[in-house]
Amino acid sequence: MEVNLERSTSWQAQTDSFLGSYGVTVCGNDYTTTNVNIVRNLFAPPTSSNPSPRPVFVVINCVSNSPSHAYRELLVNEIYAGGSAQDFGPSIANWRRIIDSVQAPSPTITGTRISNGLFEFTIPGQRGRLNRVERSTNFQNWETFTDVFGTNGPVTIRQPDTAGNPNHFYRIVQP
Length: 175
Description:
The protein is elongated. The protein has helices at residues 12-21, 89-100, and strands at 2-3, 26-28, 56-62, 73-80, 110-115, 118-123, 130-136, 143-149, 155-159, 169-173. 13% of the residues lie in helices and 32% in strands. By secondary structure, it is mostly beta strands.
């Protein structure tokens, strides 16, 4: 179920057509008075009996190159009528579980550089996952250099003894 919130004088027809090409049926449009499927008035003023009259729309797409979910796969598409004191705690916990089910692609090393005499590179952070950075001098024997766990942002790895160990090779493994 989708709600197109664009004015009929702007891109409403194009958006409805685009959504229709993906098999999505537009069920409401607040700007169209002739639409019999209007969901709620998005601009309804709060009253003492209904302090939050506006609907709540939750849409979460998978927009990564995840091996577990298709690119742009619709993960959550929900609408709540608004009003009253709805507890979104359980819903938020469920949405987080769904988001966390999206597996990150295999990490890669990027941004290799020498900075202030230190060899540095960047690996992607992956919430809730352990990435082990290993190094070797011969591609045969690998040792753990560091473990990186649980962030969502990129992580910079630095080798402080670059001058004394110029021939190290690095890889990332997920134990």
